[in-house]
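quick one
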Amino acid sequence: MKQPPILTAEERRLALEKAAASRRSRALVKNQIKQGTISIQEVVELSRQDSAIAKMRVSELLESIPGVGKIRAVALMERLGISQPRRIQGLGMRQLQNLLQEFTASSPIRGRGKLIVLSGPGGVGKSTVASRLREVSDFWVSVSTTTRAPRMNEKEGEDYFFLSENEFDLKIQRDEFLEWANFAGAKYGTPRQGVENALKMGRNVLLEIEVDGAAQVKAHSPEAILVFLQPPSWEHLVSRLEGRGSDSPERRSQRLELAQNEMAAAKNFDLVLINDEVENVVERLVSLATH
Ligand code: ADP
Ligand code: 5GP
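structure w/ adenosine-5'-diphosphate:
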């Protein structure tokens, strides 16, 4: 190995600072990819001006894309003839073209995943079903954006991306939502890019959203399967909302009133499932996606 250069204390400090800044800008871009707010094309363009991004490994880039994990990234790189340690700056013209083609809207659709939308009255068990589905299947469950305050135990990026009204409105203006709606005094929206990427990668996608949002999805993606989750009875719904215990009494009564209206929307859905047992619902959703 070549002898390392002899640096003064000041030069060492500057070198460390530069390395830390590079790591920060790579982490920022990876986070933006995860949230679907920057496209692969834009990252490649950025890499032409920013050497920290140019030095990012292609595998790191791919693993940050919603719907692509380590295993899929390895398979994709093999298919595109890109060696595992390759950095963005080392990609040949053809490799770059193939990579971009893979993630553009015009790319040939190779075994596109199914889009399933799960709606139903608040408290019926939608998020319980969604998180179980995430655990036991290969479904990609979209993480929504909301302006409501986090509940106890909710984590940024896992349960929701929590945004201010202004930040949310900016995303509406930029057309970054597949759908969005007002619900119980807050805004909720599905980031478009993540869903698109996951479907393109052949993943089945679940959106757990309220009924207006579900109607918007169906309007522009008629192939989406709309599933309405119903409680076994109204009493079950009341007791589940009570049991969750994460809302104030006023908020709970507001939610019950909303739930009455939401129940009436079931007729607009492709399928109604009764949430008697979480496992049964999860099984039905998996079989919907695979048949
Ligand atoms: P939603 O996301 O539809 O508002 P949650 O998933 O938060 O509803 O569920 C509300 C409450 O009901 C939670 O306490 C949850 O544990 C409970 N729950 C969900 N599904 C069932 C079920 N099949 N049987 C009994 N309790 C359930
Ligand atoms: P909560 O505040 O209980 O987490 O969610 C309230 C309602 O908003 C639920 O019915 C939930 O399904 C819905 N919701 C969550 N994310 C989205 C979203 O991205 N879009 C829409 N339209 N509704 C959402």
